[in-house]
From TrEMBL:
Keyword Nucleotide-binding: yes
Xref: InterPro entries: AAA+_ATPase, ABC_AA/LPS_Transport, ABC_transporter-like_ATP-bd, BCA_ABC_TP_C, P-loop_NTPase
Residue ranges of every copy of the ABC transporter domain listed in the record: 8-249
Protein known as: ABC transporter ATP-binding protein
A GO MF term: ATP binding
SMART domains (UniProt xref): AAA
Source species of the chain: Ancylobacter koreensis
Keywords: ATP-binding, Nucleotide-binding, Transport
Length: 256
């Protein structure tokens, strides 16, 4: 990695679906240890940006660099192996496996193998899995089948699984979706603590504005595929254009 280079550099990304320009000349960076929120109205282009960064979609133009290296157009598995993890709005875990076995599966996948419940190898990675579960507040749930876990715990498990790949960059689709009050605040505080402790770069989408403005280090705002703001929490919250198109507040001034 280049000394001082951001973990993620997105430059002039453009992607159209037929006549719809879903992402239009978008550029931003994410640094190590930074929690960056990507917000915008429905259809603004957030998922399209995520899918380009992790290789599920090819942009029409523009570049994505990870640690200074161009990764645009590489297949998703390759990009994951280079250190890009992702968690989804609807968690993807195996319900019949325990929490620990789910993390062991993720550890095995990160090493390019498979986890076999029925062979002696089933203890492989258990200690490391337990460590990751402890880091996400799930130590007491390690041996429970994932199907019996509370919703918030499934999201914590998914986070432990994402960390199994030792990502440098973690993309999180609405990490607190479906959670209320205290659980939501605890989840984002956990993500924030892991970001700091591991020097992770985290890019997350989120519809809860209390989560975004209470915890993000910086906020970028998309509207109809264009980046309309990029700055600190207070700066973005006060931005008249952001208020007009997204936050629903009265615009205080027009922009050229
Ligand atoms: N596969 C597709 N085919 C055609 N149009 C698409 C496709 N995927 C997305 N779009 C369009 O591209 C635009 C951006 O969509 P995208 O899903 O990236 O936005 P988003 O900000 O993630 O929205 P949401 O918050 O609703 O998930 C929208 O107008 C959407 O209808």
């Amino acid at each position: 990695m280049n000394a001082g280079a951001p973990v993620l550099e997105v430059r002039d990304l453009t992607k159209s679906y037929g006549g719809v320009r879903a992402v239009d000349g978008v550029s931003f960076d994410v640094a190590a240890g930074e929690l960056l929120a990507l917000i915008g109205p429905n259809g603004a282009g957030k998922s399209t940006c995520f899918n380009i960064v992790n290789g599920q979609l090819r942009p029409d133009a523009g570049a994505v660099r990870l640690g200074g290296r161009v990764i645009t157009g590489l297949p998703p598995r390759r990009i994951a192996a280079l250190g890009v993890g992702r968690t989804f709005q609807v968690a993807a875990v195996f319900g019949s496996m325990t929490a620990a076995q789910n993390v062991q599966t993720a550890l095995a996948a990160a090493r390019g193998g498979t986890f076999d419940l029925w062979r002696p190898a089933r203890r492989l990675g258990r200690e490391q899995a337990l460590d990751l579960l402890a880091q996400t507040g799930m130590a007491a749930q390690a041996d429970r089948p994932a199907s019996t876990l509370a919703y918030g715990d499934v999201k914590r498990l998914e986070l432990a699984m994402a960390l199994a790949g030792e990502p440098r960059l973690l993309l999180m689709d609405e990490p607190t979706a479906g959670m209320a009050g205290t659980e939501r605040r605890e989840m984002i505080a956990l993500v924030q603590a892991l970001t700091r402790a591991r020097g992770l770069a985290v890019l997350f989408t989120e519809h809860s504005m209390d989560v975004v403005f209470g915890h993000a280090d910086r906020v970028i705002v998309l509207a109809r595929g264009r980046l309309i703001a990029n700055g600190g929490v207070d700066e973005v919250r006060r931005d008249p254009l952001v208020r007009e198109v997204y936050l629903g507040g009265a615009p205080t001034e027009a922009r050229p």
